[in-house]
Amino acid sequence: MAEAYIVETARLAGGRRNGALKDWHPADMGAEVINALVDRSGIDPAAIDDVIVGCVTQAGEQAFAFGRNCVLASKLPQSVPAVTIDRQCGSSQQSVQFAAQAVMSGTQDVVIAMGVESMTRVPMFTNLSFHMKAGLGEGPFSDRIGERYGTKDFSQFKGAEMIARKHGFNRGDLDAFALESHRRALAATEAGAFDREIVPVAIEGGMHTRDEGIRADASLEGIGSVKLLEEGGMISAANASQICDGAAGVLVVSEAALKKHNLTPVARIVNLTVTGGDPVIMLEEPIPATFRALERAGMKIDDIDLYEVNEAFAPVPMAWLKELNADPAKLNVNGGAISLGHPLGASGAKLMTTLVHALQARSKKYGLQTMCEGGGIANVTILEAL
Fold first, then answer.
1. What digits encode the pLDDT tens for the residues 334-377?
2. Which residues does 53 contact at the CB level (< 8 Å), separation at least 6?
3. Which residues are catalytic?
4. Dist CA 217 CA 139 (whole Å)
5. Which CATH architecture fits 270-385?
6. Helix, strand, coil shares of the chain as percentages rounded to 5?
7. Domain coordinates of the chain in residue numbers?
8. I need a surface site. Which of 7, 113, 139, 199 has the fewest CB within 10 A?
9. What are the residue boundaries of the Thiolase C-terminal domain, all occurrences included (predicted)?
10. In 10 A of CB 128, how many CB atoms?
11. What is the pTM of this model?
């Protein structure tokens, strides 16, 4: 089978809600990532076959062929097409997988896979609330779905609580995990670990180059004082991912493109897996998805040097670690979404960008990335750093 290679990665530093990136139109954020991938790789912009853009809340400034608008705002010629996809939190990880599939099939040679989400300018659920207010139907879940699962209340917050209880975690466990996320992200930032992957962008008063969500003063006491999302629960805003504005992208090419354009690969894509499971507990699917990916790749978890498991809620990566019997020291080594933010449709490419750079910085070989996603879906991608 033909191979797919990653040549370049790039991301914006995360912006807090109403923070540094609040004045940036999301199409322009996407364009900045596209331009950085082209500039850093040195490829002819006209050589790009397609741009695949993940975005969850496709409304307002993120509506109307949003991926194409990112291209039109960039330095790419108008001859380059684009498409927008939504696999919920895994949207841009799926962008990478679609790009790799296109390259591996031989139908395309150079594809930008990316994601963009401005959660400030296009708040979460904007697309749903518009249709509900306009009286357009009864919502996304039909009566048939309700009959099949005994509910129409599919909630990620409830799913996170269910995972915490199922795996025997308490709030102190979740808060301790959250604190470690901040500590790792702060250490990585101060060591310059993110410098190469971040694309500086102009903001009022200077340049935006640092993830805004990291709390240098984070403490177990402070995290533990944050109000719980539901009475008697364990999930709080402090042990869940942060609302975030961001964009990230990956340049995926074929072996023929490497030679034709004199490109140097930074990683080879080893395995692409996506699975579906229980939509009620919802966020547990990365566990069986990882087992399947490892089996298909002929690998064991001990063969993987680093893991990126999205910190949508603390119990998600914690349960993954427990069930995979994985090494906590290899997990989210530079922090995760609890500290760095979770810009929904951009997070997949964001995590992959960080994973590639973390592997290179440590001279490690294999990395695995997985995301929990709405509806009980999970993507897994295994990479080999080159």
1. 999 999 999 999 999 999 999 999 999 999 999 999 999 999 99
2. 30, 66, 67, 70, 82, 83, 84, 85, 92, 95, 114, 115, 116, 345
3. 89, 342, 372
4. 41
5. 3-Layer(aba) Sandwich (3.40)
6. 40, 20, 40
7. 270-385
8. 139
9. 263-384
10. 13
11. 0.96
